[in-house]
């Protein structure tokens, strides 16, 4: 994990276990289960998990991220996150001076080779998945010293562990030290779809629309990280979570204060106290795990 201030090169798995420990230390509850259905109720939301747990909440924050879909090339998935990566902002610097392969899956994906050019003089962009590429694009790549390989890539070559090259359809191998792939991003946004939130067009296709605080079009439903922004990296995803947590808490407190003010007004008018108190208990507790 790179580009995360104070955690450069940290293991993502360690980041997750740090997070578990810190959430539990402040009495947060973590349930390792998949949410299968999410629906609005009269006073909030109900979530049902794969193992049958039911949770209710006044508001929900969806942080379900994305799935990267790689082209079907033998050995690619096995090297994912090691010899095969995708993000120049995450792994570009670490590829300085190395033999870089860019596996473009679209004309737009050719751009990754330009993004990486400042890190290495040895870049080959493999265009077999997008051939024919526009002649103007090819000329600009070549003008910048980027080799264009049009033969189809059939498999990843390793020394048993480390990636060493890409195998081509004609039986030859192009040696490379690292491959930047061009996966399709698929939002794992089923909970948001079930609740019918609005979507907006982005460069990678329709995506959940949020305001700067992470509010979706459905009141009480918020989205953060890659669920709200396909371009979010770890710091941006975490930052959006913090922004949303503040805004959501402000709404809960405002709701509780308004309900209390209404009760005070009712009491001082002498009328019977029949003001709705659905929002209590106040603020902090929003999730009620049943049997979990
Ligand atoms: C190979 C690779 C390398 C990367 N390197 C870097 C890097 O160096 N620096 C950097 O900043 N970023 C890097 N990133 C990007 C980084 O992983 C994302 O920006 C970040 O993980 C987004 O965080 P998130 O919380 O939005 O989503 P995620 O981290 O994807 O978390 C979403 C979680 O929600 C869970 N989930 C999904 N659906 C459900 C459901 N229905 N019920 C319950 N749980 C569900 C998922 O299982 C997952 O655990 C890299 C990504 C990849 C693929």
Describe this structure in words.
- The protein is elongated, with a radius of gyration of 25 Å.
- The chain has 2 domains: 31-66 and 187-289, FAD/NAD(P)-binding domain, CATH 3.50.50.60; 71-182, FAD/NAD(P)-binding domain.
- A hairpin with a 2-residue loop joins strand 1 and strand 2.
- The chain has 292 residues and is of the alpha/beta class.
- The longest helix has 36 residues, at 234-269.
- The chain is built from 6 helices and 18 strands.
- Helices cover 25% and strands 25% of the residues.
- It has a 5-stranded parallel β-sheet. The chain has a 4-stranded antiparallel β-sheet with strand order 1-2-3-18. The chain has a 3-stranded antiparallel β-sheet with strand order 10-11-12, with no helix packed on it.
- The structure holds flavin-adenine dinucleotide.
- Residues 1-4, 34-35, 63-65, 68, 81, 85, 87, 90, 188, 190-191, 225-227, 232-235, 237 line the site of flavin-adenine dinucleotide (FAD).
